[in-house]
Write a structure and sequence with these properties.
Alpha/beta knot, single chain, alpha/beta, 8 helices, seven-stranded parallel sheet
Length: 218
């Protein structure tokens, strides 16, 4: 008896269909079937994604990055920050001011359990979080539009450096005093009429840019 995986059975059926079409001299259909068979892509199943367990995540070497969320009002954005931080093995998230803290069902709607993997700490003010990050040797990078900002595409991370990216309130951005204290201010180039990205989008863009540049994936 022949034992095949579900994917194997699908492949076998495709081969049989090509054979029967060939016997019927349906050359055009045979050609299309072969092209589809050799170029076919499919979505991976969850069990094929090599996802880490929470315990494995905790033990992995982390990206030398923390996020400082400066008075973020939306719990959905907070949850997204955790989820993206999990994806990129971020060291920790610092929650400040009015930013909501886990556990909360509205955070978990977008975090999808990432609050159990990513370390976090709460500070009553963003200033306290920045001071803590500086004392731990992190370079403070405010993600904001400023008069002397560096466009993200021009940003060259320092070798072996640790970065603390500060992301600001949805309406008011990063606090002015924090921008003044930052070691660098990063700006994501934009070309439309709004020049405003949701914080969850900005976090993904900035983290991917850093990881790509420091070669963390290699």
């Amino acid at each position: 008896m022949l034992f095949l995986s579900p994917r194997g059975y699908v492949f076998l059926l495709q081969i049989l269909n090509i054979y029967y079409d060939f016997r019927r001299r349906n050359i055009r259909k045979v050609t299309n079937s072969i092209i589809n068979l050799t170029t076919h892509m499919r979505k991976l199943k969850n069990e094929e994604l090599n996802r880490l367990t929470p315990e494995e995540f905790k033990s992995r070497v982390k990206t030398p990055v923390i996020l400082i969320l400066d008075n973020i009002r939306s719990m959905n954005n907070v949850g997204s920050a955790f989820r993206t931080s999990d994806a990129f093995l971020v060291e920790a998230i610092y929650l400040t001011g009015i930013t909501a803290k886990p556990p909360h069902r509205d955070i978990n709607k977008t975090a999808l359990g990432a609050t159990d993997t990513v370390d976090w700490e709460y500070f009553s003010t963003t200033q306290e979080a920045v001071e803590k990050a500086k004392s731990d040797g992190f370079i403070i990078a405010a993600v904001e539009q400023a008069d002397d900002s560096t466009f993200l595409n021009d940003f060259k991370p320092k070798k072996e450096a640790k970065y603390a990216f500060v992301f600001g309130n949805e309406a008011f951005g990063v606090e002015d005093d924090i921008v003044k204290q930052a070691d660098i201010c990063l700006e994501i180039p934009q070309f439309g009429s709004k020049h405003s990205l949701n914080i969850s989008v900005s976090i993904g863009v900035v983290l991917w840019d850093l990881i790509n540049k420091i070669g963390f994936l290699k």
